[in-house]
Amino acid sequence: MTESPNPLFEFLLRQGDNALVLGHRTSEWCGVGPALEEDIALANTALDLIGQTQLWLGYAAEVEGKNRSANDLAFMRDAYDFRNILMLEVPNEDFGRTMVRQFLFDAFQVPWLSALRQSSDQRVSEIASKSVKEAQYHLERSAETVIALGDGTPESHARMQAALNYLWPYSGEMFGNDSTDQAMHEQGIAPLPQSLHKPWMQSVSNTLAQACLAVPEDPFAHSGGRTGFRHTEHLGHMLSTMQVLQRSYPGASW
Amino acid sequence: MYSQMVKSTGKAVPTLAELSPEDRAFQKRIDRGEKIEPKEYMPDAYRKNLIRQIGQHAHSEIVGQLPEGNWITRAPTLERKANLLAKVQDEAGHGLYLYCAAETLGVSRDELYQMLHDGQMKYSSIFNYPTLTWADMGAVGWLVDGAAIMNQVPLQRTSYGPYARAMVRICKEESFHQRQGFHIMIAMAKNGTPEQFRMAQDALNRFWYPSLMMFGPSDKDSVHSAQSMAWKIKMNTNDELRQKFVDETAPQAEFLGLTIPDEKLKWNEATGHYDFSEPDWNEFYDVLNGNGPCNTERLDTRKKAWADGAWVREGMMAHAEKKALKAAKAG
């Protein structure tokens, strides 16, 4: 890919878009969760993620210096300018896929945000400090759910294994390594995501074993989300929903 | 309100002399303003009536998530999206408190769901109306939550302890929701573009009469109300609350520069209240009988969510049982 003129901006978009896109998917569960307690928990997760989006994209907009706001970035960019990983934009499908995705992502976010607390960039460190507490809570819940449903009934086990098999090829993108990652690493802003792969794999394998789920063996990893080179077809549909008011009534305040 | 047309005994309220000694003692406790707690004596009809009322209220909170959920994915800014998510989360929480209050009367949440799905229990008619533009999120907060508050504030003093306590928590959050809705209306009607103003007026046009219907038909026709009021599970008449709502809302509409779709709406110096037109009660009964614009859709959505979630609930239960078994063996 071409070298980004502003790696910090790219980096912040990756953080913000991950939160925005997963927050959006999670919010699709509103009112239709499998139990009332899950409705509440899903809304809570979505709420945390939208809050994180405001922080990351707010800072991204400042760093960009083009007089855009977090809302401009969320609602006025097209798919090729989004920097979220593909795993977070694929549809929810069922509660199983929703929770396996949440778990695979949380298991990355907790060590990732923990590391970002040491960032040389004070704002990044502050946002990470606030977000990591939420991520820890999300991980606790998603891991517990994955264990329960992986172990539960033959049907719940089969659904969770199918979800894992589907999502696994999308999980590798979290550990990408490109010029933006290198630049962030050199400036002490963030560790290389790659450096988290081994511990992530260990913690994920540990939970999946408790969930009686088999870790897929194929190491293939899709990519194209965090660089914006090639998203899935799903993102465009998500954005056409998410952005409809800002696009239809440009300049209006809400 | 969130509970309309709750059927009670269908008979006139008996006098104290007509009651059995137990029921007389019970009624006297209520008259003294005492709270009735779950394990204490209560007449069967009181219990049944409460179950229907609290259950209907709980169902309304749950079904009420849907018309707003319809706009969460299209909220126009991150702040609005967060606010709406928080609001819908609160509503699920209210549902939870209320189902718990109903459980203290000996009916489980699953049983109540079953009755909702079978059509034996209702939820508020208001949630059978569609939300068509973003201004509806404003109108629902402003009018629907506003109307709900009118009924729920006095219910904090209702005779059944767990219900009264649930209502205290609920009221705090509802008034916040109403302000949030009103702010959406301000942004669109007062500070917005001509298109936003049009959306705001259109939302008011569609939600005005359905909001008035939330209070239920006039009390003069209702034998149910009198008994519920004697039991203090209903604190004011439908007409009193409706009038209070109109009196509070009309000046707010004026402040927003919006027109309430009622030519007869006018301040009456003599009564100290607004005069206003009754809603079309035929429409109300149509909605109650399942023929509102969204009845089928709302109930189908809830039934589908429940059916789709069955494997999750079963999986969770199976895991919990296995865990308990392991713990028992280890212990």
Polypeptide structure, described:
The complex is a heterodimer of chains A (254) and B (331). Chain A is globular. Chain A has a single domain (7-216, 229-248), classed as Ferritin (Up-down Bundle). The longest helix of chain A has 30 residues, at 122-151. The mean pLDDT of chain A is 97. Chain A has helices spanning 7-27, 36-64, 70-75, 95-116, 122-151, 154-171, 179-186, 197-210, 233-242, 244-248. In chain A, helix 1 packs antiparallel against helix 2 (36-64), helix 2 runs antiparallel to helix 5 (122-151) and helix 5 runs antiparallel to helix 6 (154-171). By secondary structure, chain A is mostly helical. Chain B has 331 residues and is mainly α. Chain B is built from 13 helices and two strands. Chain B has a two-stranded antiparallel sheet with strand order 1-2. In chain B, helix 6 runs parallel beside helix 8 (194-213). The model of chain B has no long low-confidence stretch (mean pLDDT 94). The chains are: A mainly alpha (254), B mainly alpha (331). Chains A and B meet through helix 1, helix 2, helix 3, helix 5 and helix 6 of A and helix 3, helix 4, helix 7, helix 12 and helix 13 of B.
Helicity level of chain B, as a percent range?
Answer: 55-70%
CATH class of chain A: Mainly Alpha
Number of strands of chain B: 2
C-alpha end-to-end distance of chain A: 37 Å
Question: Secondary-structure element order of chain B, as H and E?
Answer: HHHHHHHHHHEEHHH
Strand content of chain A is under 5%
Intertermini distance of chain B: 51 Å
Largest interface: A-B, 51 and 53 residues
CATH architecture of chain A: Up-down Bundle
Sheet with the most strands: spatial strand order of chain B: 1-2
Strand runs of chain A, count: 0
Secondary structure class of chain B reads: mainly alpha
Overall 3D form of chain A? globular
Spell out the CATH superfamily of chain A.
Ferritin, core subunit, four-helix bundle
Uncertain segments of chain B are: none
Assembly status? heterodimer
**Helicity level of chain A, as a percent range?**
55-70%
CATH topology of chain A: Ferritin
